[in-house]
Amino acid sequence: MSEVRIIGKTVEEVPEYKPTLVKILNIIAVIFAFCVVLVIYIPNSIWKDEDAVRAISRKRMVILNEVEKFYKQMTGFYQNDPLLAMKVLTAVRDSTRADSNFFGEQVVKLPEGRFALTVPKNFYLTFDTTFSFGYFKKDTIYDTTYQVLKWNEEMLTNDTVYVLADRYRELRKSDSSFRKALGSENSTRVQINRYYRPFYLDTTFAYSPLIKELYQISSDTSKVRIQDPLKGEFKEKRYLFFAFKDTSAGYIENDEKSWKD
Q1: Quick check: helix, strand or coil at residue 245?
Q2: Which residues contact 203 (CB under 8 A, 6 or more apart)?
Q3: Among 21, 124, 82, which Cα is nearest to 225's?
C-alpha cells in the first residue's frame, strides 16, 4: 500500500499599497509643520512690532522734552501745545540759519501770535547737534604758512615766527609789532571734521504712533511732564488668531524717564 504525503507550503502575505493614505499623511505633516512655523514666527513678528512702536513713541517723547527745554530757555515758560512749541523752535532755527545777527531779544511772528524770545547766538547749530546724528568727513585743507618778522619788546630785537594765513592777516591789521613778511609756503593737510545734518521737526513727533493722539504735556513754571496719551491696553487683531498688544509707553518728567534705556 503506497503512502501519500502532503507537503504544506508557507505563503507570505504582501501588504497592500495604499497611495491615497500616504498622500493624506504627507499633507497632514506639511500642514502641521506649517502651523508650527506660524505659531513660532507670527508671535515673534508681533513682539518685534510692539517693541518698535514703543521705541518710536519714547523717541518722540525725548524729542518733545528737548523742544520744551529750548522753549523754556527762550521764553521763560513751557508750552503745553507740542505743535506750537515745535513751530516756534523751527522758526527760530530757520531765522538763525538765515541771519547770523538773529540772536538776543527777538520777536517771532506766527499766525498763532507774536512770541517774544531771548535767542542764543547761532541757535541752529545747537538745534542740529541736539537732535541730529553726527557724521565724520575727511576734508583737505589748503593753507599758506608765512614767515613773519616781529618786534620783540623784551629782547629789543626782531623775531622770526611762522603763522598761517588767518593769523597773518590779523597781524598785518592790528599788531604793531609786525614788521614784514619774509616769505610764504603753500601746504595741504587732511583733517577729519564732524558734521551734523540739518534736523527738521516733523508734526508727527507730536503724536503717538499707536493711537495717533497728541502727547499730553502738563507744566508749571518749574516742571514739565510729557505723557503717552494711551490709557489702559491697546489691542489689535492680527492674522485671525493673534493680537498686537501694548500699554502706555510711559512719560518724561523734568528730564527723568519712567523707563530704563
Answers
A1: strand
A2: 83, 86
A3: 82
SS3 114: strand
- Give the position of cell 491696553: 233
How is residue 207 annotated by DSSP?
B
Question: Which residue has cell 504582501?
Answer: 14
Burial class (CB in 10 A: 0-12, 13-18, 19+), 108: buried
pLDDT for 85 beyond 50: yes
| Contact (Cβ atoms closer than 8 angstroms) between residue 139 and residue 188 | no
User: What residues are paired with 242 via a beta bridge?
Assistant: 238
Q: Which has the closest alpha carbon to 52: 231, 252, 250, 249?
A: 249
Strands (E), 95-177: 104-110, 113-119, 134-152, 157-164
∠ CA 217-218-220, rounded to 5°: 135
Cβ contacts of residue 172 below 8 Å, gap of 6+? Answer: 178
Task: Please write the tens of the pLDDT for every residue from 129-141.
Answer: 999 888 888 988 8
Identity of residue 82: P
- At 66 the three-state DSSP class reads helix
In this structure, is the dihedral angle defined by the CA atoms of residues 168, 169, 170 and 176, taken in order, positive or negative? positive
Q: How many CA atoms lie within 13 A of 201 on its CB side?
A: 27
Residue with cell 514739565: 224
- The string of pLDDT tens digits covering residues 15-35 is 555 678 778 877 888 888 777
Residue 186: closest CA among 216, 165, 203, 200: 165
Q: First and final CA of the chain: distance in angstroms?
A: 108
Q: What is the Cα–Cα distance from 15 to 18, expressed in whole angstroms?
A: 9
How far is 237 from 116, CA to CA, in rounded Å? 49
